[in-house]
Write a structure and sequence with these properties.
It is a single chain. By secondary structure, this protein is α+β, with helices and mostly antiparallel strands. It folds into four domains: 3-70, Chemotaxis Receptor Methyltransferase Cher, domain 1 (Orthogonal Bundle); 81-286, Vaccinia Virus protein VP39 (Rossmann fold), CATH 3.40.50; 309-413, PAS domain (Beta-Lactamase); 511-613, PAS domain (Beta-Lactamase). The protein is 46% helix and 21% strand. The strands form four sheets. A seven-stranded mixed sheet has the order 6-2-1-7-8-10-9. Helix 11 (222-235) links the parallel strand 7 (208-213) and strand 8 (236-244). Helix 1 (3-21) runs parallel beside helix 3 (49-58) and helix 5 packs across helix 6 (116-129).
């Protein structure tokens, strides 16, 4: 199947989703969207989009799985802590300062997923203005297209793992434990309103002081992003702020937003002065179709320069910055407002290279000036290598217009060159080592020749030894037969001992008295079922433990006087009557009889205790 047919099938699938489920994914980036849909077809062992569309018609439950795959809900509390610290320290105080006492504060968390960012901004505002003022003044609107994620967010219930990124004092202040989970405070939860909202089709929430859309727009194509940003611009108050994720920039939308802190992706709304400008975002909000007007030639040239993969700036003949493409803005943290400023006032004029010293010879010699492998270091110790190419620009009358300065990134080439140099050095070292190894091999070969002669002599000795070993082997076989006979006798003895042990165990278990057998160190060897019934401990719990250390109802300390005569040989039979408490907490009297435990050669190995409950 051709690529064109694959694309047509995919577009048919998107139309089916829009018509049958009301979800319009046509504004999403095609490569990402196709990759995610392909992931589902592969999991279901389907060949193409036609088969997947048939599967959706037969299995409607698959819609939920598909939407969960496309709508990637990745979020957490205080994600990117440094950015949230900037919001708490700079943006929220500025919002409160601009408001009159009692004036409402409105926040929109677009693409809120399972609600963590909505509750995060709630905690930040509550800390800044106090809980009482928060309840009276704040409304936080949290929206997403995924109903399943919204249902989870409405419950405001999270696991301990979800709350790991929250400081202990905030966790204890704003979350209440319940059945192993943590619930966001109910009185503050009422200020957070969750609802389904499609950023492409639905009208935006208006009169906002803060709009949070973190890593939401990166899934859309550039035209859809432009429409969404126009809606965001319309939704914000004149002093409102837009808070984006680390993967998103607005460098190509400087007419709508200007950076407050580019590193943390916080932008301020640019007020629109003219009537036409003020109506432009409104027109974008109502426009759900792409403009099909062909680009004019100058727009085409500008678009080509803007989309160039190489960072490039243009400086006019007066030394002012005339244009900066997107790559250069990203490389050198330039702002569209820097266009028109003198180059000498900008950091790029001297870092990573002194550009003015290159521009002058380019004008004077009327040729391209190239500076190769300029090193550029970053605060995190990363190093980038750039070529700086200064090209003079002339009009048709050959009068200078300015210079174009390109900054090709040659870091990969520089790294490969370094690796090549290291490889050459390693090869040269390897050759020297190989030469040395060859010489060693020649010497070793001579030694091996001598050793071979010695081995031949040794071989004759080994043959004689082998004959002796054969004789010994016959003797060992005879010995082995005797050992097998002994082994059979031992096996029979073992069976007899096991049988005797079984009989002994049955006898001990059947006794109505508790039987405890101990060694000389008072460690328990035997503990029968009656002892378990009296004191509530199983044999595997007490075996090997000292009888004197057991915490049971039997006063074990008083047994010393009974046991020691048996162990020392003073007396072979002692008795004692003790007051005790059985495992049921009942007070009983126990008649304890102690007899010595004899070994086979009549040595005292321990003692046998018989414990009988005296009946009333």
């Amino acid at each position: 199947m051709s690529q064109r047919e694959d694309i047509e099938q995919f577009e048919n699938l998107l139309r089916y989703l829009r018509q049958n489920r009301g979800l319009d994914f046509t504004g999403y980036k095609r490569p990402s969207l196709m990759r995610l849909v392909s992931k589902r077809t592969q999991m279901l062992n389907l060949d193409n989009c036609v088969d997947y569309l048939d599967y959706l018609e037969v299995h409607p439950e698959e819609f939920s799985q598909l939407f969960n795959t496309i709508l990637i809900n990745v979020t957490s509390f205080f994600r990117d802590p440094e950015a949230w610290e900037y919001i708490a320290d700079k943006i929220v105080p500025a919002i409160l300062l601009a408001k009159n006492s009692g004036e409402p504060i409105r926040v929109w968390s677009a693409g809120c997923a399972s609600g963590q960012e909505a509750y995060t901004v709630a905690m930040v505002l509550a800390e800044a203005m106090g809980v009482e003022a928060f309840r009276e003044r704040v409304k936080i609107y949290a929206s997403d297209i995924d109903e399943e994620a919204l249902n989870e967010a409405r419950q405001a219930s999270y696991s301990a793992k979800d709350l790991q990124s929250i400081e202990d004092n905030l966790r204890s202040k704003y979350f209440e434990p319940l059945n192993g989970r943590y619930i966001f405070r109910g009185d503050l939860r009422r200020a957070v309103i969750f609802g389904r909202h499609d950023l492409i089709q639905d009208a935006p929430i208006s009169r906002l002081d803060l709009l949070i859309a973190r890593n939401t727009m990166m899934y859309f194509n550039s035209e859809t992003q432009a429409r969404i940003l126009a809606r965001f611009h319309f939704a914000l108050n004149e002093k409102g702020c837009l808070f984006l994720g680390r993967a998103e920039l607005l460098l190509t939308h400087s007419s709508l937003f200007t950076p407050l802190n580019l590193k943390n992706r916080v932008f301020a709304k640019v007020p629109l002065v003219g009537l036409r400008d003020r109506l432009s975002p409104m027109n974008d909000i109502g426009n759900n179709h792409m403009d099909n007007t062909p680009l004019l030639p100058d727009r085409l040239q500008e678009a080509a320069l803007e989309s160039s993969p190489i960072a490039r700036i243009i400086v006019d003949v007066d030394g002012n910055l005339a244009h900066v493409n997107q790559k250069a803005r990203l490389f050198f943290s330039l702002n569209p407002r820097d266009v028109g400023r003198p180059l000498k006032d900008l950091e790029i004029s001297y870092r990573p290279a002194e550009l003015r010293s290159l521009i002058e010879p380019a004008y004077a010699e009327r040729r391209v000036i190239t500076l190769t492998s300029v090193e550029r270091r970053f605060p995190n110790a990363d190093v980038q290598y750039l070529d700086v190419i200064v090209t003079p620009l002339y009009d048709q009358a050959n009068n200078p217009l300015g210079v174009g300065i390109s900054f090709p990134d040659v870091t990969a080439y520089h790294r490969l060159h370094g690796e090549l140099q290291r490889s050459r050095e390693e090869i040269q070292t390897a050759n020297e080592e190989l030469q040395s190894s060859n010489e060693e091999l020649e010497t070793t070969n001579e030694e091996l020749q001598s050793s071979n002669e010695e081995l031949e002599t040794t071989n004759e000795e080994l043959q004689s030894t082998n004959e002796e070993l054969e004789t010994m082997n016959e003797e060992l076989q005879s010995t082995n037969e005797e050992l097998q006979t002994v082994n059979a006798e031992l096996r029979q003895r073992t069976d007899e001992v096991n049988h005797a042990n079984d009989i002994l165990q049955s006898i001990v278990s059947s006794l109505r008295a508790g039987v405890i057998v101990i060694n000389k160190h008072f460690n328990i060897l035997v503990w029968n079922h009656r002892a378990e019934d009296l004191w509530g401990l199983r044999e595997d719990e007490v075996k090997g433990h000292s009888l004197l250390n057991l915490d049971i109802g039997l006063p074990v300390d008083r047994l010393r006087a009974v046991v020691r005569p048996c162990l020392s040989g003073e007396n072979d039979h002692t008795e004692i009557l003790l007051d005790a408490t059985n495992r049921r907490g009942k007070s009983i009297k126990c008649h304890v009889t102690c007899a010595p435990l004899w070994s086979a050669n009549r040595e005292r190995q321990g003692a046998i205790l018989l414990i009988e409950e005296e009946k009333k």
